[in-house]
Amino acid sequence: MIKTFTLLFATVFCLCFTTRAQETMQSRNCATDEVNALLGQNQPEYKNALQEVEKAAALYLQNRSGQRTNSLGDTIPVVFHVLYNTVQQNISDLQIQSQLDVLNEDFNRRNPDASNTPAAFQSVAGNPQVYFCLASLDPEGRPTNGITRTQTSQTSFEFTENKMKFTAQGGHDAWDRNLYLNIWICNLANNILGFAQFPGGPANTDGVVLFYRTVGRTPLNPFPGPYNRGRTGTHEVGHWLGLRHIWGEADKSCTDSDFITDTPNQDGQSSGCPAFPRISCNNGPAGDMFMNYMDYTNDACMNLFTVGQVERMNAVLHTSRAALLQSNTCSNVLNADFRAIPDAIFPGQTTDFFYYSNGRQPATFSWVFEGGTPRTSTQKDPQDIHYDAPGAYTVTLTVTDARGSDTETKIGYLKVTENELQLYPNPADRILTIGAPADQKLTEVGIFNSIGQLIRKYPAEERTLTVEVRDLPKGLYVVRGITNRNENFGQLLLIFH
């Protein structure tokens, strides 16, 4: 369902409440508005961050034909932080592994109950092709099993305080969110089932929190149902990747939206396991999609994401959470990845380089800076590397330890720009990258043919934009870019095939 609605105050966390009677959870509820209001009060800049997340996702979906994708799927490294006050709360490795199994099934449409999706919704059932792996390296490059365990004096944790996410408050500090999906497992107070943070929120609280009784599936999850099949984890990771509840936020109104076109409008949350079809908001004949992972039915009654939900999650993963796709923390290998900050400068300026620790911790570092001064360095994070002449310069890093070495060469990585539009490669064959001057961002790019006709137009929100040109006929073109300073730049482009 899709309607006009501002997302500036969209859900940041999903907080799922349960009613326990004799340790059996009976129903789910959600305190989205309260939590979102709390975050807005504590983090006023969050509204701007949400805007940027939405812009980036929208641009990705609009320009996705020019985006590099992995047809085999994307992998997200996961670390589980178990916080326990009693022996019962210190759940087993096997229970945690079963949660990982559920995530990998549900996010690849390999869940055994996929066949339970009603025929009316089979055509819109989507496959995110997202995989989850237990981290084998910690943030310092040391071996780990992807599970931390912390005995705490906290008998329970309040969602309003986020103490479970801070070691000094009886929890466990988040690992680098650019390398891991952090999932905290603990005893949540006030009958909360779990919650997740949307992209755009603060780094030190980013991730998912699960009530320990909901983790994994029976029989490895030994606790009573109906939320003991790992679908709370699926639901919360959906939020973490940008999905809203299927009915939106305004319960029982038929006026809200989840911003997904292929989920039927429904009047509010579902519970239990309804009989199909259940009609609301004039959405017959198929009615509510109550078996969607982003509704509130029992674990055993959930079985699908839609194609539209898949597109949104992938857009968020490849934009706001894209750093995770470069993480090497599930493989115990040496990795020579690095970053320059900034990676575009003007002639005569300097930049700083940083080793990106997403692999085994190296013992030595060997840098080579084409066109830079100094030209080489053995420091871990070389600073103040000077460049005089315009160009796109290659940087190479080799790291070694007692077991081997790895080399990363980034061709044309460091851009030293004049105050003009850059095109590379030029001439171009398949892929073209358009770059603004070092201190500006592109807002719009147009490609014109030799007689001045506009044949391509792209919105943008970054310094560089990469597009496909393989389908353009061989010939001479003009590329024009408008920047955030409202400056208009043009450059000739030659296409050859």
Can you put this structure into words, describing what you see?
This protein is of the alpha+beta class. The chain folds into three domains: 310 residues, Collagenase (Catalytic Domain) (3-Layer(aba) Sandwich); 84 residues, Immunoglobulins (Immunoglobulin-like, Sandwich); 74 residues, Macroglobulin (MG2) domain (Immunoglobulin-like). The chain is built from six helices and 26 strands. Strands 1, 2, 3, 5, 6, 7, 8 and 9 form an eight-stranded mixed β-sheet that branches. Strands 12-19-18-14-16 form a five-stranded mixed β-sheet, with no helix packed on it. A hairpin with a 2-residue loop joins strand 18 and strand 19. The longest helix is centred in the first third of the chain and has 18 residues. The protein starts with 15 loop residues before the first strand and ends with a strand. The N terminus is likely disordered. One of its GO terms (molecular function) is metallopeptidase activity. Belongs to the peptidase M43B family. Keywords: Disulfide bond, Hydrolase, Metal-binding, Metalloprotease, Protease, Signal, Zinc. It comes from Adhaeribacter terreus.
Number of strands: 26
What are the low-pLDDT stretches, counting only 5+ consecutive residues below 50? 1-23
Radius of gyration: 25 Å
Count of spatially separate domains:
3
What is the fold named in CATH at topology level of the largest domain?
A: Collagenase (Catalytic Domain)
Q: What's the story with the biggest beta sheet?
A: 8 strands, mixed
Shape: globular
Content-based structural category: alpha+beta
CATH superfamily of the largest domain: Collagenase (Catalytic Domain)
Helix content: 10-25%
How much beta, percentage-wise? 25-35%
Using the 3D structure, state the CATH architecture of the largest domain.
3-Layer(aba) Sandwich
